[in-house]
Amino acid sequence: MQFYDFKEIEERVILIGVQTEQDEDVAASLDELEELASTAGAVTAGKVIQNREAVHPGTYIGKGKIEEVAALLKALDANGVICDDELSPAQMNNLERELGCKVMDRTLLILDIFARRATTSEGKIQVELAQLRYRSARLVGLRESLSRLGGGIGTRGPGEKKLETDRRLIRTRISALKAELAQVEKHRELIRGKRTRGNLKTAAIVGYTNAGKSTLLNTLTGAGILAEDKLFATLDPTTRVLELKDGQQILLTDTVGFIRKLPHHLVEAFKSTLEEAKYADYIIHVVDASNPQAELQMHTVYETLRELGATGKKIITLLNKQDRVQGEQMRDFRADYTVKCSARTGEGLEEFKEVLAKLLAESQVYLEELYDYKEAGMIQMIREYGSLISEEYREDGIFVKARVPAEIFVSVIPKARK
Ligand SMILES: Nc1nc2c(ncn2[C@@H]2O[C@H](COP(=O)(O)OP(=O)(O)OP(=O)(O)O)[C@@H](O)[C@H]2O)c(=O)[nH]1
Ligand SMILES: [Mg+2]
Q1: 328 CB within 6 A, ligand 1
Q2: How many Å apart are CA 65 and CA 18, to the nearest integer?
Q3: Which residues contact 282 (CB under 8 A, 6 or more apart)?
Q4: What is the number of the ligand closest to the CA of 209?
Q5: Residues whose CB is under 5 A from ligand 2 (ion)?
Q6: How far apart are CA 294 and CA 332, in angstroms?
Q7: Pick from 260, 304, 266: which is nearest to 283 by CA?
Q8: How many CB atoms lie within 10 A of CB 358?
Q9: How far apart, in Å, are the Cα atoms of 311 and each of 282, 306, 307, 308?
Q10: Whose CA is nearest to atom 14 of ligand 1?
Q11: In whole angstroms, what is the distance from residue 90 CA to residue 302 CA?
Q12: Per residue in 40-80, pLDDT tens?
């Protein structure tokens, strides 16, 4: 009797990395690649690191290493390889031919994970756009590689029923997607504009993937966002109001996580999402302080922020997951404020809110004034643009304590004082 298994064929892969610099931690990078692979549904059967001056321009790794990998594929019963860097079209074709198995790279993997995670129309358009741009340069090799298993990593995506392999069709689709995206972006700008008019300050929650950004927003505001022990659980930004003391409010936006070697095409396609950080007044940088790679992750985050042009803002770094940290503490010299916390247990979050309140207060002017009853309109304005701390109805008028943005200060000074 024969059993048929209709499940997708299990992808068993060998991960390949190239060590070019002494201090580069390729082993750790491959560990992360393994996590990415498992998120995408592939099982890591083995890992290979080659020490080279530079990546081999034609085949990524050298000839001897290719033979080693080919033998490993057999020995470990693996059916694919994933390289830790983005392969050029030529490298992909050549490796594919030499190894005779499915060849993937870090970028394809990340794109695949994004493709599964995208839920909103904006997210889906962005992912499809990034995938098509990546594929259009690699039609030949990819077609071979992806058809080998008839599915799996690299073949999933929001847009297609079947893998698009015609260059001309891809170009047409890319233009259509770009036009759609432009529409969505316009909408986002509109929303952004509304927020600024409401005069609330905004803070973007950024950080390495899985650092605890969504958990933070959930704990602070009950936002109800999916927070998972998975890479790239969040793709679409969510914004919530956080109430602080004295009626102060701030808008917090949870965003897509960063990762080292974030694919160029993704950054391009996800620009409007990633730019939340660029348009925010403050940056809240969440670090998984319990991760052995925390320092490097922090560095990656700052590099990415720089690429996005999100610089020159006050930064609050949260050294998160303190419930799992023992002993030696790390520091972030680039932050204006650093707070140790646990988004899960709530530890340290009061202190964090104090810092936010302080930052907001800095950008506002404190006033204590007596308004004539006829000047209730000014108090309305304070309510709208600033934060009203208290109002007291007296015989001679309304006594108000408040904080207002410097820009409107002159407009809300009572007549009696002018
Ligand atoms: N122990 C501990 N775990 C935490 C803490 N904060 C978050 N986590 C866990 O870390 C994992 C990732 O949390 P998320 O909030 O999804 O992380 P994220 O930064 O939004 O990740 P992406 O959206 O994937 O970029 C989840 O399993 C959380 O429960 C914390 O303070 N302590
Ligand atoms: Mg998240």
Answers
A1: no
A2: 11
A3: 201, 202, 203, 204, 313, 314, 315, 316, 356, 359
A4: 1
A5: 213-214, 233-234
A6: 10
A7: 304
A8: 11
A9: 10, 6, 9, 8
A10: 212
A11: 32
A12: 999 999 999 999 999 999 999 999 999 999 999 999 999 99
Q: Supply 414's token pair.
A: 């009572």
Identify the DSSP state of 396: T
Neighbours of 385 (CB within 10 A): 19
Beta strands in 260-372 (DSSP E): 282-288, 314-320, 337-340, 364-371
Rounded to 10°, the helix 63-75/89-99 angle is 50
pLDDT, tens only, 171-218: 888 899 899 888 888 877 777 766 665 668 899 999 999 999 999 999
pLDDT at 161 over 50: no
- What residue type is assigned to position 325 of the chain? V
Task: Give the side-chain half-sphere CA count within 13 A for 84.
Answer: 26
Dig out the tokens for 177 from the structure.
């997607």
Q: Is 320 in the pocket of ligand 1 (CB under 6 A)?
A: yes
Sign of the dihedral through C-alpha 187, 191, 196, 197: positive
Q: Are 272 and 185 in contact (CB under 8 A)?
A: yes
* DSSP category for residue 409: G
For the CA of 257, the closest atom of ligand 1 is 25
The identity of residue 300, as a single letter, is: T
Tell which residue, 96, 82, 4, 74, has the closest CA to residue 41: 82
- What confidence tier does 159 reach under pLDDT thresholds 50, 70, 90? low
Nearest to 356 by CA among 205, 218, 197: 205
| C-beta of 213 in contact with ligand 1 (< 6 A) | yes
